Amino acid sequence: MKSAVENLNPTRVRLTVEVPFEELKPSLDAAYKKINQQVTVPGFRKGKIPARIIDQRFGRGAVLEEAVNEALPKFYTDAVNEGELNPLGQPEVDITELKDNELLTFTAEVDIRPTIEIPDYSGIEVTVDAVEVSDEDLDKSVEQLRERFATTSPVERAAAEGDIVVIDLEAKVEDEVLEDGVATGVTYTIGSGELLDGIDEAVTGLEAGGEATFTSELKGGSAQGKEAEVSVKVSEVKARELPELDDDFAQLASEFDTLEELRADSRKRLERSKKFEQATQAQEKVLDALLELVEVPIPEKLLEEEINTRKHNLEHHQLGQMGLNLESYLQMQDKTAEEFDAELKEQAEKGIRTQFVLDELVNKEQLSVGQEELTEHLMRRAQSSGMSPDQFAQAVVEGGQVPMLVGEVARGKALAVVVEAAKVVDDKGETVDLDDEEDETGETVEATSEAVEAPAEAEAATEAAEEPAESQEKQDKAES
């Protein structure tokens, strides 16, 4: 077999492959055997039909077609290996010549990973936010903890901001009650902004049994986006009572005996959280600086697939879980479809460039992933997804996503190498030491998931469940 490589552009090649007919013989024999098992010819036992009879009855062309189809993947793979190529996706194959008993010639066009030169990155310098915990930050953290231990009790007075009301709702559009526009026994905290626009003003001042009507644009349901006339009836008003900030509260809400000890521990937690955020910010900024140093051509087809996959995941996983569609999401974000598409393209391009550059760094630095590292990463991903490690591992294996996780760990190690070589200072001019920086769980800080995850086309089977869990995790960290 002979093969030649023609570079069509930095990310696409055309392979021209010539195969002597004798190299087709194993596939030709297999084709005769397969056809033998599929057809019946009077006078011959099944599977014992001579090749010449098959040629006469069914045509030599059918046999050649079967043989070529069976042999092409092997010849293509051999040509790729001979050319030392890194193909992306499936090739477009065209059989240009097939001479019986003489020669098979075909071409294959395929996208490839571009050749990337990693420059000296030791001169990268980035500035990050300084770690500061203000008294206001501390007060807010303690107040959030206090909110968790609030109690409620019914009151016989008009509802006010911060009160909890139990309400019945009925929505009408063009004087018709919507089938999905009736809800009873809804619990709502006045001022939370978690329901319809205008509801806070409507229920404020009402006592139990009071009713009001207001207009609001519906955020979901069959009449999403339409103006509706909403009737609300308050059946109960409850007041929230916060515990006193004293030593008794410290003993109730923590393992500490005094409020002073509780506040001191809260300050330490906030400092650890801010250090973790600082390390993450450093990683993101170093990555951006690295990407600016490297020219990375992107295959058009890969970019198109990446954009489509990201959009599909957003629409059918993340937004679907929140009961939103793309149109309502854009309204909430105050974005046009054109702005959204532009942002999505930019994110997709960065994701692909990031993977290409970090993968090249993995090769350059000869980084490998050990079983222990992979297991630790899997445990963290399982925790953030809300699954047990066994469930997550099963989903990853069944989805064929183990190589994706290995790639994430390797890319995280590659980024860590660059971060270690970079100079990181805070906005006060102080040098930041990120060596062995730990977050509040005691784990060594990894590269951010945005930096190390594979493009969306290699999305884990559990990503839909994982996204909201990751957001909740960040929220819990902030509150603690």
UniProtKB/TrEMBL annotation:
User: Which UniProt key words apply to this protein?
Assistant: Cell cycle, Cell division, Chaperone, Cytoplasm, Isomerase, Rotamase
Q: Where is this region: Disordered?
A: 427-480
**Leader peptide range in chain numbering:** none
First-listed, main subcellular location of the protein, grouped into a coarse class: cytoplasm
Q: Which residues fall in a compositionally biased region of kind Acidic residues? A: 432-443
Which Pfam families does the protein's record reference? Answer: FKBP_C, Trigger_C, Trigger_N
Give GO MF terms, alphabetically: peptidyl-prolyl cis-trans isomerase activity; protein folding chaperone; ribosome binding
Entries under SUPFAM superfamilies matching the protein: FKBP-like (SSF54534), Triger factor/SurA peptide-binding domain-like (SSF109998), Trigger factor ribosome-binding domain (SSF102735)
The protein's Enzyme Commission number: 5.2.1.8
Q: Where is the composition biased (Low complexity)?
A: 444-463
Intracellular or extracellular location(s): Cytoplasm
Going by the record, the broad EC class of this enzyme is isomerase
- Domain named PPIase FKBP-type: residues: 162-215
Annotated GO CC locations: cytoplasm
Q: Where is the composition biased (Basic and acidic residues)?
A: 471-480
Record GO biological process:
'de novo' cotranslational protein folding; cell division; protein transport; protein unfolding
Do you know which PANTHER family this protein is assigned to? TRIGGER FACTOR CHAPERONE AND PEPTIDYL-PROLYL CIS/TRANS ISOMERASE, TRIGGER FACTOR-LIKE PROTEIN TIG, CHLOROPLASTIC
Domain free text:
Consists of 3 domains; the N-terminus binds the ribosome, the middle domain has PPIase activity, while the C-terminus has intrinsic chaperone activity on its own.
NCBIfam families from the xrefs? Answer: tig
What function is annotated for this protein?
Answer: Involved in protein export. Acts as a chaperone by maintaining the newly synthesized protein in an open conformation. Functions as a peptidyl-prolyl cis-trans isomerase.
Q: Which family does it belong to?
A: Belongs to the FKBP-type PPIase family. Tig subfamily.
What is the protein name for this chain?
Trigger factor
Which source organism? Streptomyces melanosporofaciens
> What's the encoding gene here?
tig
